[in-house]
Write a structure and sequence with these properties.
alpha+beta; 2 helices; two-stranded antiparallel ribbon; 185 residues; single chain; 5-stranded antiparallel sheet; rod-shaped
């Protein structure tokens, strides 16, 4: 990218920022995460499922709030086959209601148990060693342990790292007798 185009982009960004600061009613920006969270809540209310995570496709990092300082989710349309969505955001623009259409993607998150700290081979897993983490349901592997019960009392075959879902194949029953230990009969 040439120096001139970088300067042009920076000037354009500065001009847009100045324009945003001069919006009527002292408009303020609100975080993209707030909009994504509100759209996810609307999808959950529509019965898409629990634990919805929304990612907007828009390149805008924020959307402007006008005089009322608020927006509302007017409508959300979701396609379960592609997990794409289209949401209409309604807001007050100086006494006139305007809508903005945003596109994005949604995924259903699942909760799985994961180590809260590093667990080494030979350590016996207790309930206190685990906590729940949310992972993208699309990335779920069929051999992940989904409940705490099969983990408690087991020992890992290899190191288990904090926050990572646990594979069933990485667990075993703890050794009762170790090699070369004396045994009473």
């Amino acid at each position: 990218m040439s120096f001139e185009s970088c300067v042009y982009r920076n000037l354009l960004a500065a001009a847009l920022l100045c324009l945003c600061l001069m919006l009527p009613g002292g408009a303020r920006a609100f975080a993209r995460q707030d909009v994504e969270r509100d759209i996810a809540a609307a999808l959950e209310q529509q019965g898409v499922g629990q634990g919805v995570k929304v990612t907007l496709f828009t390149s805008r990092t924020d959307i402007m709030r006008y005089r009322s300082g608020a927006y509302r989710i007017a409508e959300v349309r979701a396609d379960p086959a592609t997990q794409k969505l289209e949401a209409e955001i309604a807001f007050d623009a100086g006494g006139e209601e305007k809508t903005l259409t945003l596109e994005g993607r949604y995924t259903l998150m699942i909760r799985v148990p994961a180590p809260s700290a590093r667990i080494n081979p030979g350590d016996v897993i207790g309930e206190d060693d685990l906590h729940w983490v949310e992972v993208d349901g699309d990335r779920r592997q069929s051999n992940w342990v989904l409940t705490v019960e099969p983990l408690v009392g087991k020992t890992p075959k290899r190191v288990l790292f904090p926050g990572k879902p646990i594979d069933e194949a990485s667990l075993k029953t703890p050794d009762v007798v170790h090699r070369n230990d004396p045994v009473s009969i």
